[in-house]
Every structure is written in structure tokens, then in C-alpha cells.
Amino acid sequence: MNQVEGVEYNLALFASGFEGRSRFVAESARPNAICSRVILFAEDTHTLSRPSNDAFFSRSFGLEALIVSASGERDAILTALRSLVSTADPKEVLRIFVDYSAMTRTWYGAVLSYFRHLARERPVEIDFVYAHGKYQGDFGPMAVTEIVAQPGFAGLSSGMRETVALFGLGLDKYASLAVFDRIEPDISHYFIARPSDRDGLTEEKVRLENAELIAQMSDASLLLPLEDVGETFRLLCERVNALDRRKQIVIVPMGPKPHVLASLLVTLRVPRVACLHVRGVRKPPVQVLEKGSASACRVCFQPDIST
Asked: How many CA atoms lie within 13 A of 19 on its CB side?
């Protein structure tokens, strides 16, 4: 996490989830030493490690989680960010710290979307930090309840008749198949995590789990790093820019969070691309413990220029 050492932040955002790794970054970074304003979000559940995570944040930082309902999660994030901006010095660069290890993509997507527009007025730097995890069991099937464009990342359809889909594959075999059948892309590609000692999800396991879906896709797959969001972003942009501009392009990231973050960044760089969010319910949840390492990336927004 050397990218974030020694930086003073205007705001730090954390989430108290049911995974054991939810507090690893906070334990390592000690946000009260780098930021005087910390906001903690959580869903209303007491599953697995959630009670002990809540106790840690309360004991260490005096924080109680702001419970975010599924219907109002984006509004809660935006309200907190507006409050920050209203009290910050307008002449200074805004610096934000986001631990997205246990956040839903709606939450960290809202952070990106909000500051992307604020950057028309002032520069913003956001450090996204992710704790790598050890999965303590196999994923149960996810029942898909909704497939929507990520708010703020809907792309431009312009009446295009054909669709190219880029699927980010993980271990949600049946959910990925359901999404593929529902959107019926004319052409499809896929990307998966490159083998890494930081990740418990091996390439072979992901390919085996998604063999039926991969058989229906183009052979032009991508192996993307888990620990380097910048490199993943670059490779996805190269693939997107090589596709036919006359077709609607959608990215469907269903793998690890760093690939989701990179996919959201691609849609900011290439506005004609949409990023889809597949919502669903999974029972039982899978415990994820920290592996003892984390990776970080910095996203910088300048007035009238997004990077």
C-alpha cells in the first residue's frame, strides 16, 4: 500500500461487511492517523464476521456503521460526499481514501461518478485499496434478480442493432449463463484473473466453472492481473477500442472487485461503453479472510479531463 503512505486525506470511506477481511485495511492503515473524517457504511445484516467488524470500527475509531438499504444505497453515499465538499477548501485538491474490499459496486461506483462530475470545478485524487482474500468455501449459486446499467455508467446506445459483450468471469456459473441468455449478445468475449499468489481463484478453476459459457464465446479472451487495476484498465481499453464502433458495447464484470473497478473506469474513458450490474441473492454467503496483503490504485480527476 505504498501509494497511500504519507498522504493526508479529506475523507476515508470503509464498509463493514460479513467477510473477515473487511477490517484488514483499516487495521493496517489506521485511518484516524491520515484522515479526520471517516465514514463507515454497511448493509443491515449480522452474518458471519459482521458483528466483530462492527465492534472493531466502534472500538478503534468510535464509528457506528451507517446502515445503507438496497433502495437508498446510492443516495446515502452521495449525501455523505456532498457534505464533505461543502466543508472542504475549494482551493485544495480533494483527496479521498476508499477501502472497497467489502463494498458493493454501487457504493464505489457512486464515488467515481460523483467526483467525475465534481472535477469540472476542482481536481480530485481517489486512492482505492483492496484487501486480497482467502475463500473459505465454494460459492453457492446466485439467483439473479435484476440486470441493470450501473448508475452513471450506462453508455450510449444510439439505436445500435448489434451488441458486443465483454464478460468478466468468476465462479458464478449459472448467474453468468442467465445473464448471457438474457442479453443475447451478437458477439461475446471474456476476461478472467491471471494466476496470482494473491488470489485463491485459479484460472483453471474459473475456466472449468464457466466451460459451458466459454464454449459460446470468442476465443479472444483476456488474462488480467488482479493486483494491478491500472494494467487491467489499459488492457480492457485496448480491447474495447479494437471493437467495431458501430456496435453497442457492454461490459459485464462478474469476477473480483479489482476487475469491476477497472471496468467502471473503462466506461469513464470510453463513454459509448456501458457497464452492467447483475444483482442477485446468494445463500449461504462465503467467508473470506485476509491473505495479509492489499493493493492500491490512484484515480485522478482534473477539471474537464478524466483519467
From this structure: 24
Give the pairing of strands 66-67 and 38-42: parallel
Give the Cα separation of 110 and 94 in Å (integer).
16
Q: What is the pLDDT of residues 218-255, one digit of tens each?
A: 877 899 999 999 999 999 999 999 998 889 999 999 98
Closest CA to 148 of 106, 100, 190: 106
Whole-structure pTM value: 0.91
SS3 state of residue 290: strand
The pLDDT of 59-80, averaged and rounded, is: 76
Q: How confident is the model over 150-160, as a mean pLDDT?
A: 81
Write out the three cell numbers for 181. 441468455
Q: Rounded to an integer, what distance in angstroms lies between the CA atom of residue 217 and that of residue 186?
A: 10
Domain boundaries defined on the chain:
11-135+287-306, 142-282
* All cell numbers assigned to 179: 445473464
* 248 grid coordinates: 453497442
11-135+287-306, which class in CATH? Answer: alpha beta
Cell numbers placing 146? 435484476
pLDDT at 1: 37
Cis peptide before 284 (omega within 30 of 0): yes
Same fold, 11-135+287-306 and 142-282: yes
Reduced to 3 states, what is the DSSP secondary structure of residue 110?
Answer: helix
Helix (H) / strand (E) containing 11: strand 11-15
Statement: 142-282 belongs to CATH 3.30.530: no
Strand order across the beta sheet in which 142-149 lies: 142-149, 273-282, 248-253, 163-168, 187-193, 222-224
The residue type of 135 is Y
Residue 125: name the closest of 262, 248, 297 by CA: 297
Distance from C-alpha of 187 to C-alpha of 194, rounded to nearest angstrom: 23
33 pLDDT above the threshold of 50: yes
Burial class (CB in 10 A: 0-12, 13-18, 19+), 82: exposed
